[in-house]
Amino acid sequence: AQTVTQSQPEMSVQEAETVTLSCTYDTSESDYYLFWYKQPPSRQMILVIRQEAYKQQNATENRFSVNFQKAAKSFSLKISDSQLGDAAMYFCAYRSDRRTGTASKLTFGTGTRLQVTL
Amino acid sequence: GAGVSQSPSNKVTEKGKDVELRCDPISGHTALYWYRQSLGQGLEFLIYFQGNSAPDKSGLPSDRFSAERTGGSVSTLTIQRTQQEDSAVYLCASSLGQGRKAFFGQGTRLTVV
């Protein structure tokens, strides 16, 4: 079974600064996807960024980028130029690339609460 | 609809009562997932529906939990004889199919008193 670990329950960053959220995972599979989701107080999970394991290039979405280290099974999220609206819970998630049954389910970490201060 | 809709937004129930939580997926989405988010925890998979296939119920924590999906659209998660440990946010997600991007609803916060 796959597991996802987020070891930082809370992080804080000043507005306009950069912060990195950590995530490690464990799997015996070679093909999979990794995700970062944002959960604001509205509770709705919002996809921030996605990485395919077969791609060596790190994914980037505007101010959000990842550092994907497949051998180390590490998948960190970097938020640049932090904004007040970035304050939320951030969840790292794993999904198998096998498109059968619950292989398409997401396995989540326990989350990191990000505070953004002025 | 524009997004995944869940109702009610919040539900308080007495221990031992049954509750029903509803999920309206995005129109045309064949895959539907239920997750549970307990306080301070990540999301825990509960059940998965894909088209007309038999649902995968491998994540349901006990036989007090059941779910159905009528007409390949609306889904209802039922919890019988609720216990305090059932208190959590129940999130629904839908996607165009297996492995496609999942869109989440805003969840139902269930409190068992």
Write a concise synopsis of the structure shown.
With 118 residues, chain A is mostly beta strands.
What oligomeric state do the depicted chains represent?
heterodimer
Q: Percent helix among the residues of chain A?
A: under 10%
Question: How many alpha or pi helices of chain B?
Answer: 0
Can you tell me the residue ranges of chain B where pLDDT is under 50 for at least 5 consecutive residues?
none
What is the CA-CA span between the terminal residues of chain B? Answer: 33 Å
Distance between the termini of chain A: 41 Å
Set down the secondary structure blueprint.
The complex is a heterodimer of chains A (118) and B (113).
Chain A: E1 3-5, E2 10-14, E3 19-21, E4 24-26, E5 32-39, E6 46-52, E7 60-61, E8 64-69, E9 74-79, E10 88-96, E11 107-108, E12 112-117
Parallel strand pairs in A: 2-12
Antiparallel strand pairs in A: 1-4, 3-9, 5-6, 5-10, 7-8, 8-9, 10-11, 10-12
Chain B: E1 5-7, E2 10-13, E3 19-24, E4 31-37, E5 43-50, E6 65-69, E7 75-79, E8 88-95, E9 103-104, E10 108-112
Parallel strand pairs in B: 2-10
Antiparallel strand pairs in B: 1-3, 3-7, 4-5, 4-8, 6-7, 8-9, 8-10
